[in-house]
Amino acid sequence: MGAPRPGTGIVGLEQLPRMTPDGAPALVTGASSGIGAAIAHRLAGRSAPLVVTGRDAGRLNAVAAATGAHPVVGDLTTTAGRAAVVSACDEHGVGLVVHAAGIGAAGPFSGVDEAEVDAVLAADLVAPVQLTRALWPAVRRARGHVVFVASIAAIGVAGEATYSAAKAALRTFADALRLEEPAVGVTTVLPGAVDTPFLARRGYDRSFPRPVPADRVAAATLRAVERDRAEVFVPRWLQVASVVQGAAPGVFRRCAPRL
To answer: Which pLDDT tens digit goes with each residue over 127-161?
Structure first.
């Protein structure tokens, strides 16, 4: 335990050891399927209580039954949906928050309509920001950890302009929180192609990069929380793309179509 703040005799939150997934009350959004479901399964028996949320009642209840979690069916893009999740967290506690919910959009930006832009930004950016705001006091008191599942699209992917914008903004939001509040762990996960229903709906047909299993992302996510990592790329070699984007943007633009 760290030394007290001068003149107060009180140890500051930033000096106390942070929470780990073991024994921490946790919330996982987007837990109906994909990465969120995989993380919920990995947290089963580690985090207690565990709250899971998603829009598909049937699949969410199946995940809850398999993990012993408390399910909250709702749409996080609505005030009522977020309020229901906050209420469940008030009841069961929360220290670890994993934002895995989101939607995608692929195709030329010239063909995107206003409703699609609004939907992607609402689900992938506004909802996690607003839910984090509502849960922030409890997470801070618990000296907890917040995880944002972004995407390698955060560095910019052709054909996914709106999705890239939302994930880039989410990554920057996480960066700002990390700088602002040392009492809370903040991790951003940037996966590439992941073998999920989302990817199937998108119509992903590339042989490279090869999609990785959702459980691989889940395992990397929890390791990052345990080690208090700021960012984790899955697979790890994708970090090279982020470094090149910042250091040699011209090279990145030439190589980006392969990602």
So the answer is: 999 999 999 999 999 999 999 999 998 888 888 89
186: β partners = 146
Query: What type of residue sits at position 76?
Result: L
Q: Distance (Å, rounded) from C-alpha 85 to C-alpha 115?
A: 25
What DSSP character marks residue 148?
E
Q: What is the CA radius of gyration of the chain?
A: 18
Q: Give tens-digit pLDDT for 34-88.
A: 999 999 999 998 878 999 999 999 999 999 999 999 999 999 999 999 999 999 9
Residues in the chain, overall count: 259
Active site members: 163
pLDDT of residue 8: 32
First to last CA, the chain: 45
Rounded to 5 degrees, what are φ and ψ at 99? Answer: -90, 95
Q: How many Å apart are CA 140 and CA 115, to the nearest integer?
A: 35
Helices vs strands, H then E, count in the chain = 10, 9
Q: How far is CA 224 from CA 62, 97, 105, 235, 244, in A?
A: 27, 13, 27, 13, 23
Please give the Cα distance from 194 to 210 (Å, whole number). Answer: 8
| Amino acid residing at 157 | V
User: How far apart are the C-alpha atoms of 191 and 74, rounded to whole Å?
Assistant: 25
The residue whose two tokens read 């470094």 is 243
- Which residue is it, tokens 């995880």? 147
Q: How confident is the model at residue 13 (pLDDT cuts 50, 70, 90)?
A: very low
> 202: which 2 tokens?
């998108």
